[in-house]
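Team,

Forwarding the record for the chain on the shared tracking sheet. I've put the sequence and predicted structure together so nobody has to dig through attachments.
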Amino acid sequence: MASFSNSTYGTVVSGTKSADYIYNSGDRVTINAGAGNDEIYNSYGYYSSINAGAGNDSVEAYGYGVTVLGGTGNDTIRNYNINYDNLSFDGGDGNDYIYNSGYDSTLTGGAGADSIYSSGYNNVVTGGAGNDRITLQAVSNVVRYAAGDGNDTIYGFNESSILTITGGSYSTQASGDNVIVTVGKEKILLVGAKGKSLNINKTYRTKTITLTKGADTLSNNIRNVKITAGAGNDSIRNSAIKVTINGDAGNDYFYNSYDGDNVTILGGAGKDTVYNYGGNVLIDGGDGNDSIRNYGEFVSINGGAGNDSIFSDYYDNTIAGGAGNDRITLNAAGNVVKYAAGDGNDIVYGFNESDVLTITGGSYSTQTSGNDVIVKVGKGKIRLVGAKGKSLNINKDENTDVITLTKGADTLRNYFGSVSIVAGAGNDSIYNSAVNVTIDGGAGNDEIDNYGANVLILGGAGDDEIDNSGENVLINGGAGDDEIDNYGSNVSIDGGDGDDYIDNDGDFALIDGGDGNDNIRTYDSKNVTINGGTGNEQISLGSYAENTSIEYFSGDGNDTVYGFGTTSTLSIGSTYSTTKSGTDIIVTVGDGKITLVDAASLSKVNIVEDTSTKLTVTNSTKSPVTADFKIRNIEASKRTTAVKITGNAKDNVILGGSGKNSIYGGAGADSILGGTDADKLFGQDGNDTLNGGAGADTLSGGAGNDILRGGAGNDSLVGGAGNDSLWGNAGDDTFVYASGDGKDVIYGFDDNDLLRITGTFSASYNSSTDEVAFKVGSTANAIILRDINATSFNVNGTAYHVSGSKLVKG
C-alpha cells in the first residue's frame, strides 16, 4: 500500500491505481485517490476536495467545507466531529455507509443500498437510487426523495423534519406505529411516525429560504435556491451553485465559497461586506458604503450607491463602482472597469494595458497628474493611479435603446434602464436589475432573472425559466413548458401555450396559466387572482394565502384546487352546479369541472357567478388598474387624473382618460386610445392598434404587426418587433427603429419629423412611387417612408435629401 502525507496549502495529491493511504492536514487541497481500496484521513484540512475513486474506500473527513465523492464501490465516509459544517458527502455507486455529526451539510447516498446517519442538525439527506436506510439523530433535517429512488426506511423522522417528494404524487397511510408514504410503485417507511405532525411536501425544485427581520446566520449548501435575508445585520455563507442571495436592509456579511458558481449576491441597503471565491458570479452591493473582495473569475461587480471599496484578485471580471466615490483595486490583468456619467469621483489602482475602462452617458477627457491619469466625465472623474505612460484602453460605450443579442446562446447582465433587450434564437441567459426594461427572450430555452421594476418579460418559444423579484412586472412565458417563479408584488403572469409550472410568492398578482395542463402554486400571498386557462390544471394555495380568487370559464377543462380556504373565492363565468364527493366539493360548469379538495369541511365556501366583461375606471379607482381574465373592455374616459392600466391576454379595447395615461395592452390584439395629455401606450404582444390622441405621446407597439397613430402633439413612435404601420400625424414626431424590428412603413413623414435608426443603414429613393426605402443591417426595405411631405429628412440628427435615386447627406 502506497502512503502519502500532505500539509501544504492548495496542492493536489494523487494516489495510485492500487490501495493507498493518504493523510492530509492542508487547507484547500484536492485529493484524487484513484482506483483501489483506499484509506483517506483528512485532519482539519479546511475546504478540501476528496475523490476516493473506484474501490471500497474508507474516508474520514474532518474540517470545514470538505467535499467527499466516494466513487464506485462500497465506501465508508465519516465525520464524528460536531463542530464542522458545510460538508458534502456523496457515496456514489455502491452500498455505502455515511455518518456525519456536523451540521449544515449535504449527505447523498447515490446508487445502491446505502446506510446514512445524520446526527447533526440542518442537514440535507438524499438516499438516491436503491433501497436505503436513513437515520436522523437531530432536529431540522431534510430528506429528499425522487420518484424511482427505491424503497427507503427512515428512522427518527419527527415534527422538525421535512420530507420532500420530487417527480410524482404521493399518498400516506398508517401501518402500526409507522407511516408509509407511497410514491408511484415505491414506498418510504417513516418508522414510529404515526400520530406526529409530519412535514411532507411535493416539490419541483427548492424555492426560497426566507430569514427573519432580525440578525440571522445561515450557512447554505443547497443548490438552486433563493435566499431572502430581510432586515437585520445578517451573516450568510454559501457553498452551492445557482443560488440567489438578497441581503435586503442591514449591514450584512456574505461569504461565497469556491463551490459557489453561478451565484447572484444582492447586498441591498446597508454597509455590506462581500467575500467571493466562486466563478460566474454577479455582485450588487446596493445602497451603502460596501466592501467587496473578489477572488473568482467571470464576475460582475456593481458597488451600487455609496462610497464602496472593491478589490478583485482575478482576471476577466467586470467592475462598476456605481454612484458615489469608490475605490477599486485590480490585482490581476484583463478586467473591465465601467463608469457612467454621474457616478462620482472614483480611484482605480492596478489599471494596466490589458484592462479596459468604458465610459457611458457622456464624453470624456484625460490629463496627467503626477504618475496618474485622470479621466474626466462631466463633473465626475476617474483617477487611474500609476497609469501615466501606459497604453490605456478607454472606450466610450453608448447606451442604446435596444440591446440586440445574437442567434446563439448569449449571456447578458443588464444594468441600464429604459432599454429593450432582444435575445433572438438560442438558449439565452439574461439578468436584469434596471427599471423600465423590456426583455424578449425569443426562441430557445431561456433563463431570465429580473430584479427591476416596471419590466416586461417575454419568454418566447421554448421551455423557459423565468425568475422575477421586481414589482409592477408583466410576464408572458410564450409557447413551451415554462417555469415561472415570482416574488414581486403587482405582477401579471401569463404562462402561454404549454404545460407550465408557475410559482408565486407575491401579493396582488394576476396569474393566467394559458393553454396546456399547468401547475400553479401561490404560497403566503394576499389578493392573488388565478385563472388556470384551458387545460387540466392543478392549483395549490398555501396555508397562509389570503383573499385568493380563482376564476373559471366554460371550456377551461378539469381543474383541481388544493388549499381552498374560507377567504378564497371561486368565480365562475357561466352557470354552474355543485356536489359533494367525500371531503371534496365538485363544481360543474358545462363539460368541465373544478374539484375543491377537502373543501367540504369548511364553514363556508365562496362561489360566485360573474359574467361581466367591462371595467369602468373613474377618479375614485385606485391606480394601477389591472384587468382580470374575463375583462375585454376598459373604459377610463371620465378619469381626469393619471392612471396606469394593464390589459390581459384577451383582445382588449382600452380607452384612456384626460390625465396622463400609462396603458399596457398585454397579450392579444388590443385597441388602445390615449387621451388629451401626454400618454404612454404599450401594445406588447399581439397585432395592436395604438392611437395617442392629443398630447406629446409615447407609443410602443411591441411584438406583432401593429398600427401606431401619434395624433396631435410631438409624439414618439416605436414599432418594435413585427411589420408595423406608423403615422405621426400633426406635430414634430420621432420614429424609432432598431435593427431586427421587422419591416415598417411610416406614413406622412415631414420636414419636422425625426427618424432614429439603431444599426448601419443605407437608403434609396423611388421616383415612380415617391417612396424612400431604408436597408438596415441585412434587411432590405426595413423602413419605407410613404406619402412623404418632406424635402429634408432628419435621420439620427443628420439632414439628408434626395439626389437622384439616393438619399444623401446635406
